[in-house]
Design brief:
This protein is an alpha+beta fold. It is built from 10 helices and 6 strands. The model has no long low-confidence stretch (mean pLDDT 95).
């Protein structure tokens, strides 16, 4: 049954700060999944002329990941750090965005978990975001046939769904990731996180919105 409040998480699978924020959002989901609807939108951070190798697009990652670890407490896996050192992996948001949009057709209420698992696969296990195998094994963890999932990922309709998410993110005027919005009505949107936000602050803002809506 549709709930009266929705948490909208706009992220990108290739966003390192989203990886740092992912455990916070997952904790929020576990606490409130019976209270609110949750939806994850891919923002399309690495698309068009931004697509390129790690070395070409974001060499600063080789030092910036330390800031993510120190601020958020997450750890980047040794496998990912080897990928980072190699520098040849292509950063392209399209395939992980297609995987997420397709997964939402199976389990729309579990998109937070799937996004979390994608980021763990990339940033801890060092998996390639451009390989179907990366998403096949996550699909299996949710009881989805991996061959079926891969075949559907290759369809034009799955690609269109991902680009629809990009468009929604722009319509919501989200320009940086991670961003979290709280929707309380058809036109009532509240910004509750922009950039990394700890769990206590996120909860405080959620409660403020609920109180404001209650009093209005």
């Amino acid at each position: 049954m549709k709930k009266s409040v929705k948490i909208i998480y706009v992220y990108d699978a290739l966003c390192g700060w989203c990886y740092g924020f992912s455990p916070v959002l997952k904790q929020c989901y576990e606490m409130h999944k019976n209270d609110f609807d949750f939806e994850v939108l891919s923002g399309g951070m690495m698309m068009g002329d931004r697509i390129g190798s790690i070395n070409e697009i974001a060499p600063y990652i080789k030092t910036a990941y330390h800031a993510v670890e120190n601020t958020t407490g997450v750890k980047f896996g040794e496998a990912y750090l080897r990928v980072l050192e190699d520098g040849s992996m292509i950063l392209n948001s399209e395939l992980p965005s297609i995987a997420l949009s397709l997964f939402k057709q199976y389990f729309p209420d579990q998109s937070v978990l799937f996004a979390h698992e994608i980021q763990n696969a990339l940033y801890f296990d060092g998996r390639d975001p451009n390989e179907f195998e990366t998403f096949r094994y996550i699909a299996v963890n949710h009881g989805i046939d991996p061959d079926e999932f891969e075949a559907k990922m290759k369809t034009e309709s799955a690609k269109e769904a991902a680009y629809y998410d990009f468009a929604l993110a722009k319509q919501l005027r989200v320009e940086s990731f991670p961003t979290v919005l709280m929707q309380t009505s058809e036109t009532g949107f509240y910004l509750i996180a922009k950039g990394y936000t700890d769990f206590e602050t996120l909860e405080f803002r959620i409660n403020n919105v609920l109180n404001e809506v209650k009093e209005s």
